[in-house]
Amino acid sequence: MTTAKPTPDRQRPDTQPPARKPNWLRVKAPISREYGETRRLMRSLKLNTVCEEAACPNIGECWSQRHATVMILGDTCTRACAFCNIKTGLPNPVDPDEPAHVAEACAEMGLKHIVITSVDRDDLPDGGAQHFVRVIEALRRSSPETTIEILTPDFRHKPGAIETVAEARPDVFNHNLETVPRLYPTIRPGARYYHSLRLLERVKEVAPDVFTKSGIMAGLGEQRLEVQQVMDDMRSADIDFLTIGQYLQPTKRHAPVARYVSPDEFADYERLARSKGFLMVSASPLTRSSYHAGDDFEKLRAAREAKLAQTAQTGQAAPGAQAAKTAAAAE
User: Fold this and answer.
1) What's the pTM value of the predicted model, to 2 decimals?
2) How does pLDDT run across 27-46, given as a tens digit for each residue?
């Protein structure tokens, strides 16, 4: 039984949260039959979901459609980021049956696209990289037609871990930058911005045919020009898919919301990001890493095909696109 350490006071004293949550962030309570069935399935297979652990506002909508983001490697994180609701402490040993349980859940739910994430496991020699591989392999065996998206920790100080997971060839490799570099010391103190950026760049080097994806939260005190710079950094690392969503304070002990960003501002961020060359952009108050992930994957794949067709006509290869085409032809 895990005994979680007391969560430190993660709140930044220099910012006061807005008084009320705006109407565009209000969601319906999860009450559907499908929601209950999804919950029971996760419990029966002893699986954790980031939907529950991170208190995602979209859980009612997603689970009513039988979409759930499975969180592997336990429910206890070795870090204490100021934005995250997942408990911090000494995790339990890794469950060797978890890959089979994830595969069973995927088959039972009939998923065309599955998202797998995890807690940070700084206590493991490889940060849990090989466990990600086992889950991917189990899914390939049981549901070969299902596309696989992973959302990984940063594997900091775990040599070879990034390459190990990238070589397993998930369809999408997601790792979130979370915020702008200036805010890392207070919001994401256990991580390093340029390490996370390099992680995504390294995935493209190892597996150029794998889509890369990353996201940031808005409303933590970032400035527009800082967000633009993050977009440019992501494009320099050849990241395909960008997500931007509103940060919501999980508890009073977490970093407060500096402001609620309007839907119009999110739409402006999306237009700006598309102009910079991302294949896919999702930016809205309720956007989360795995929100509408299946539908977005189909759009992402179509966007790559369109870009490859365009570059074939002009004879000029877009960064990453030609590498993906070459890798696909070699298979």
Assistant:
1) 0.85
2) 665 566 666 677 677 777 88
